[in-house]
Design a protein that fits this description.
Glutaredoxin; seven-stranded mixed sheet; globular; PRX5-like
Length: about 170
């Protein structure tokens, strides 16, 4: 499992952009994790799936709500990573009104989840291999703090915990 001090995995996530601009075409665009994290402070959180109850009601809304505070505390970007394709993540971003606040990044083949060692096997529930619920503060591509939730829990990966770690 990835640990504090480790570099983020050298994998590619996908991001759906609805509006063309800043060199991004409409549709899924590759996000090379190490390259995208270079020189930035990132509040990254991962969760089992888009449109799922806790993720939609608490996890993403908390980061959207605390966006201004996180930015003021020194966070350059907020990333939400889930084992879903970029189209699903784009639709979820619309529903969550996260544009300009949280980058919704699809890990369609669970490459990032596997590379971090933070997978969750939900095959018995018909969802396949997913990401565990966690958050991490990333500075210049390295993990500065890591908050992994226990099974079925939502206690340490929330935006409030991340904000306190950024301020520390």
């Amino acid at each position: 499992m990835i640990q504090v001090g480790d570099q983020l995995p050298d994998v590619t996530l996908q991001e759906y952009s609805e509006v063309e601009g800043n060199g991004c075409s409409i549709g899924p665009n590759p996000v090379k994790v190490r390259e995208a994290a270079k020189g930035k402070t990132i509040a990254l959180f991962a969760l089992p799936g888009a449109f799922t109850p806790t993720c939609s009601a608490k996890h993403v809304p908390g980061y959207v709500e605390k966006f201004d505070e996180l930015k003021k505390a020194g966070v350059d970007e907020i990333w939400c990573v889930s084992v879903n394709d970029a189209f699903v993540m784009g639709a979820w971003a619309r529903e969550q009104k996260s544009a300009g606040k949280v980058r919704m990044l699809g890990d369609g083949s669970a490459d990032f989840a596997r590379a971090t060692g933070l997978t969750l096997d939900l095959t018995a529930r018909g969802m396949g291999v997913r990401s565990n619920r966690y958050s991490m503060l990333v500075k210049d591509g390295k993990v500065a703090s890591l908050n992994v939730e226990g099974p079925g829990k939502f206690e340490v990966s929330d935006a409030g915990t991340m904000l306190s770690q950024v301020k520390a």
